[in-house]
Amino acid sequence: MLCFTAVIPHDTDLLHESAAENQLTRRGIAVVGGELMASKPDVILILSSHAENFSDQYTLFFNTLFSAGAALKKFGVISNAMRPAAVCFLAKLQSFARAHALPLRSVQTTALDVGSAVALRLLKIPDTLPTAVIGSSSARSILDHMETGYSLKDFIQNFPQRVAVIVTGESEHNTDAEPPLATLLARRSVSALIALADRQVRDCVSHPLALCYGLLRGFPLVTRIHADEHNTRSALVTATLFSA
Ligand SMILES: [Zn+2]
């Protein structure tokens, strides 16, 4: 069953503990990390758009140990062992996907994508907590992501253990014509999200967030924005969307 859902940014600059900027975001992510652990998850499911990507399929990472690639080595070892709960979660998800003809492709790799690696580190998710990653599809529409998320809802609600879902991603700087991501989240506006995602410059948060919104359909969303900041590249939004 679903126990917790949040959105956090994953800019690697946030890994520099001593950096002065984006303190609000750091504090917001710390709050989310605390809420996440308080929700007592048995499995963490990360939705990321930076994972190995197949244009027409979603990716399900099927491995026994994640570790972050060379680009993140300077931040120390970032790894997460896939303990039995996650293996069980993945095996069941794999057969659910087959039974429902979901375009979910299983991939064996130990490389942790930057979105997932930074989320694990920033949220201080312990190595002992099983983690699974689903990568979004680059070619499928935002609506397709929502429908796939809605299919995943059935699976997660029927899974006997507690599942927390973390969306990782950032939005580009918004023009005046577009409501900022935090406003979209606060309004819980699906149509506005679709409009945002259909822009030519696509954000890395749009597809994972659409998967998540599909998954949350029918749940009482709380949508607490903990931080809404910019750095030189992106808009960083940190928010809790659901807490059981
Ligand atoms: Zn990104």
Task: Kindly describe this structure.
The chain is of the alpha/beta class. The protein has a single domain (2-235), classed as LigB-like (Protocatechuate 4,5-dioxygenase, Chain B, 3-Layer(aba) Sandwich), CATH 3.40.830.10. The protein contains seven helices and twelve strands. It has helices at residues 23-38, 84-99, 114-122, 142-158, 181-187, 190-197, 206-215, and strands at residues 2-8, 43-48, 58-61, 65-68, 79-81, 104-107, 111-112, 131-135, 163-168, 171-172, 224-230, 234-243. The strands form two sheets. Strands 1, 2, 3, 6, 8, 9, 10, 11 and 12 form a nine-stranded mixed beta sheet that branches. A three-stranded mixed beta sheet has the order 5-4-7. A hairpin with a 3-residue loop joins strand 11 and strand 12 (234-243). Helix 4 crosses helix 7 and helix 6 (190-197) runs antiparallel to helix 7 (206-215). It is globular, with a radius of gyration of 16 Å. The model has no long low-confidence stretch (mean pLDDT 86). Residues 10, 50, 115, 169-170, 204 line the site of zinc ion (ZN). Zinc ion (ZN) binds next to loops.
